[in-house]
Specification:
The chain has 16 helices and 17 strands. By secondary structure, it is α/β, with parallel strands linked by helices.
């Protein structure tokens, strides 16, 4: 059980120095207990106290980090069963499998699709995260494939899969500081695999034939090495779904440390039908899998997974926003219309999509409304005439256009008079209420 803010406060030096960025030790302790601050930010707490608080405050599912630099993937760190309770911390990793016995065309196609199947939605890049490289008994072919993947897909995090500890060790050396996940320690090779993981300083996957065997093996290994990922060996949808739920409930609700690790699942080994495989993966994205390994990446099967993952792992407590700025659409010039709206992502992408579809070169001003939609922001006083006017004056749009005509959303028609007072040099035009009417409006637009 994690420590409360008061319990953490009792262990702090109580200097109220503010060097941690929080005014008082009590406030800092409360933030640490809530997971909003790191105990290491306190410069006066002893190493022993920091270690004790870090251990007690750690999430029930250990956080595992793969990769290096800007190209990293994190899983685990989860603290709840349902997103509405708090939030899910790390999105499920989408992984594609390549193996040493595949043909050149199969390998090249998978690596190419890993690099090209990337989509931008509401300002978020949706793409696959990992490549699993499987050894089929040929060490030289395995190490060559690892080198190739690192060269052709430098932003991919890796899972190295082999039953031979020496082969995994060679593969890990090729990756250097770009930490891969080593797969897998079993009851037959656990000791050797742990030594390889220690030497390489890489996370290690633990695989049993059942969830019970996996938990027992993980408990034993975790006494010596704690950066673990679990594969319960389940290879049917029912079995793997039950295992994912049992692991999450046991670790979150009952604090069972032996299963307090993220998981990797293999839809690619459950069916030969790519569509069925994608459907299995969709269930596991929704129900707690840390990684889903797919046999291939195809646009019609992987895009729905990307979108599902984006929706599930969006923090419900934080609105999705775009940056306050001037956005040129369709190559505008000094005679192009100027529109303004809020920075709620959905509003931005609907409006910008309609403007782009109109083929009319336009300037779109995005005002920061803290992620609120147009009417909600207006009601909350965050999209008022004075704030809009201040933004128009400071954003620099006046230097980009020869006219002084600003188009506001139709739902803000009541602000026209106030805006004309705040912006006496500008003419305020009322745009349509619905974004779908923008193309027709813009095609007929003339500056007043």
């Amino acid at each position: 059980m994690g420590l409360s803010g008061i319990e953490i406060m009792k262990m702090l030096p109580k200097k109220n120095c503010g060097e941690c960025g929080v005014p008082t030790c009590l406030a800092f302790a409360m933030k640490v207990a809530a997971g909003q601050a790191d105990i290491n930010a306190c410069p006066h707490a002893s190493d022993e106290v920091k270690a004790k608080i870090s251990e007690a405050s750690a999430p029930p599912i250990r956080t595992i980090k793969l990769g290096s630099g800007d190209n990293t993937f994190e899983m685990g760190g989860e603290t709840c069963l349902y997103r509405h309770e708090k939030r899910f911390e790390h999105p499920t990793g989408i992984c594609v499998l390549v193996s040493t016995d595949m043909s050149e065309d199969d390998i090249a196609g998978r690596l190419s699709r890993f690099n090209t199947l990337r989509y931008d939605r509401v300002g978020v890049l949706m793409k696959a995260d990992l490549i699993a490289i499987k050894d089929r008994g040929d060490k030289s072919a395995f190490t060559s494939l690892v080198e190739r993947v690192r060269g052709e897909c430098p932003d991919a995090c890796l899972i190295l899969m082999s039953e031979d500890p020496d082969t995994l060790s060679e593969g890990a050396k090729i990756c250097a500081d770009h930490k891969p996940l080593l797969y897998a320690a079993t009851k037959d090779n656990a000791d050797k695999m742990v030594e390889v993981a220690k030497d390489a300083k890489c996370p290690l996957c633990v695989k049993g034939d059942t969830i019970g065997e996996t938990a027992s093996l993980a408990e034993k290994i975790s006494e010596d090495y704690k950066d673990l990922v679990l594969d319960t060996g389940a290879r049917t949808l029912r079995a793997v779904l039950e295992d994912q739920i049992l692991i999450r409930r046991a670790s979150i609700k009952h604090k069972v440390r032996s299963v307090g690790f993220p998981t990797v699942t293999f839809p690619c080994e459950m069916t030969d039908d790519l569509m069925v495989e994608s459907m299995i993966a969709s269930v596991l994205v929704a129900k707690y899998a840390g990684i889903v390994v797919l046999s291939d990446l195809q646009p019609d099967t992987v895009y729905p997974l990307f979108l599902e993952r984006l929706n599930i792992f969006t923090d419900p407590q934080r609105p999705m926003v775009v940056q306050e700025d001037i956005y040129p659409i369709n190559g505008p010039d000094e005679n192009s219309p100027v529109l303004i709206t809020c920075n709620f992502s959905l509003t931005y992408f609907i409006v910008s999509g309609e403007v782009e579809g109109s083929k009319v070169p336009s300037w779109l001003l995005i005002k920061d409304t803290e992620g609120l939609s147009v009417l909600t922001a207006w009601a909350a006083g965050k999209f008022s005439a004075d704030l809009i006017a201040a933004f128009v004056k400071k954003c620099g749009i006046a230097d980009k256009v020869s006219h002084r005509c600003l188009i506001i959303p139709g739902y803000l028609a009541s602000l026209k008079g106030e805006l004309e007072e705040e912006l006496p040099d500008w003419t305020i035009q009322i745009g349509p209420r619905e974004a779908s009417h923008l193309p027709a409006f813009l095609r007929e637009w003339q500056p007043s």
